[in-house]
Design a protein that fits this description.
It is built from 6 helices and 7 strands; from the N terminus they run βββααααββαβαβ.
Length: about 210
């Protein structure tokens, strides 16, 4: 009998300057990637090991920071690392260097993202072999009217199976919050119904990266 493991969902929000309005309602467009997810990424064993070691270091560092808070603690450093890796894919220069240091990413961009893909596929394969039902879902939510490079859209699809959804955060922030929550609820079969609480999305929001594991 297959068993479900604990579920987690992560959202990364990015804020920016105000842009032009788009009218009422949560408009949504999905940018279609030119490539589908790579199901057999060519990743060397040492690259996979480097990613695992970096993720472990990040997890321990994160736990040391969060354990100072009182109460029970339940988190998935892997989910956080994966969501931030999608943001890191679009970073350059000093921002990219600071993110790599904080997240313990030692691989170059062109090898890091295939390694994340390979690791995710290995985890899913091992879970299935152990009779555990494990699903992951990723998505990228950007502001309508903002230009996103096709190469970035394709990278998210190829390595993370994520699509880019363009929505109107500026004029209808709460409607977009509800739309994202509906997506998370659908992907987790109703197990996570409100990832984003009221007020978490504002007219200044420009980007939301979501990762759900259940």
């Amino acid at each position: 009998m297959r068993r479900s493991i604990g579920l987690l969902s992560v959202a990364l929000l990015v804020f920016g300057s105000l842009g032009p309005g788009w009218g009422s309602g949560c408009r949504e467009e999905v940018l279609r990637p030119f490539v589908s997810r790579e199901m057999s990424p060519e990743v060397a064993e040492e690259e996979l090991q480097a990613l695992v070691e970096g993720n472990t270091a990040f997890a321990l560092e994160l736990y040391q920071r969060l354990r100072e808070q009182e109460g029970n603690l339940f988190l998935s450093p892997y989910s956080i690392s994966l969501a931030l890796a999608m943001a890191y894919a679009g970073a350059r220069g000093e921002t990219a260097a600071e993110m790599a240091q904080a997240l313990h990413f030692s691989l170059p961009q062109e090898r890091l993202h295939p390694a994340f893909n390979a690791l995710d596929l290995v985890i899913a394969e091992h879970a299935a072999a152990g009779g555990i039902e494990l699903h992951t879902a990723n998505a990228f939510w950007g502001q309508l009217g903002h230009r996103f490079l096709q190469g970035y859209v394709d990278l998210l699809s190829r390595n993370y199976g994520a699509k880019l959804h363009l929505v109107d955060f500026h004029d209808t922030p709460d409607a977009c919050r509800v739309r994202i929550n509906d997506w998370v609820s659908e992907k987790t079969e109703g197990k996570i119904e409100e990832l984003l609480p009221p007020g978490s999305i504002t007219s200044l929001t420009r980007l939301v990266l979501t990762n759900a594991i259940y």
